[in-house]
């Protein structure tokens, strides 16, 4: 605690009734100098306290501004991140559904084996196989249109384009027609032979 400052008149203890002797005057001068030194120290201390209070006030204002700024930024960021998390979860579910759907269609397409078809049911088998391929094509196109915009925006790898021709495992519609003709050829030959035998037997029986 700083010492309580007494009035200068009390410190100097001047009395008009007492004569001032040189010794007494020197004593009063010394007391005055001591008092001035004490006042200077008190002034320095007060100025130091003032600077400390100003620094504390500045830090408190900085704290309040920082709290308000970061509270606002963090609150808005949490809203954005919540929306991003929802979109990411929704996209993940969509990707999983697409993987399952694509896997099922791929299994069906890979299960197409023209060599195992019965030549008598060739047209039926071809129609069924083409329907399987076309169903996969439609599903692929629909799912690709849903996923592709997001993938392009994020710089992800693009899904392949859907070819405008019928294809499955690299075979075009013309190749499927050739395969069908190859399976039909034995039936055609067998039909010609049967007609030939029929007419031959009819002619010899007359």
Descriptive notes:
The chain has 206 residues and is an all-alpha fold. It has a domain at 8-14 and 22-61. It has 4 helices and no strands. The protein is rod-shaped and about 180 Å long. Residues 7-12, 150-155 and 164-169 have low confidence and may be disordered.
Q: Helix/strand-derived class? A: mainly alpha
Beta-strand content: under 5%
Gap between N and C termini: 149 Å
Order of helices and strands: HHHH
Taking pLDDT < 50 over at least 5 consecutive residues as the criterion, the unreliable ranges are 7-12, 150-155, 164-169
Can you summarize the main beta sheet? none
Query: How many beta-strand runs?
Result: 0
- Helix percentage range: over 70%
- Overall 3D shape: rod-shaped
Report the average pLDDT across residues: 76
The helix tally amounts to 4
Rg value: 52 Å
Provide the fold topology.
Layout lengths: L7 H5 L9 H89 L11 H32 L19 H32 L2
Helix pairs in contact: 2-3
Tag the structure with descriptive keywords.
206 residues, mainly alpha
Summarize the structure.
This protein is mainly alpha-helical. The chain contains four helices and no strands. Helices cover 77% and strands 0% of the residues.
């Amino acid at each position: 605690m700083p010492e309580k400052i007494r009035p200068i008149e009390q410190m100097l203890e001047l009395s008009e009734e007492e004569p001032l002797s040189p010794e007494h005057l020197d004593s009063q001068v010394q007391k005055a100098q001591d008092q001035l030194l004490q006042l200077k120290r008190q002034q320095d201390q007060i100025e130091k306290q003032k600077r400390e209070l100003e620094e504390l006030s500045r830090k408190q204002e900085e704290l309040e501004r920082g709290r308000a700024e970061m509270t606002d930024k963090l609150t808005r960021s949490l809203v954005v991140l919540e929306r991003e998390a929802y979109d990411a979860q929704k996209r993940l579910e969509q990707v999983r559904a697409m993987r399952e759907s694509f896997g099922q269609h791929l299994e069906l397409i890979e299960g197409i084996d023209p060599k195992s078809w019965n030549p008598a049911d060739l047209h039926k088998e071809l129609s069924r196989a083409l329907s399987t391929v076309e169903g996969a094509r439609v599903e692929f196109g629909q799912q690709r249109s849903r996923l592709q915009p997001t993938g392009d925006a994020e710089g992800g790898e693009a899904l392949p384009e859907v070819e405008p021709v019928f294809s499955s495992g690299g075979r075009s519609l013309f190749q499927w027609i050739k395969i069908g003709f190859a399976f039909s050829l034995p039936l055609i030959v067998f039909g010609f032979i049967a007609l030939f035998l029929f007419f031959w037997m009819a002619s010899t029986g007359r």
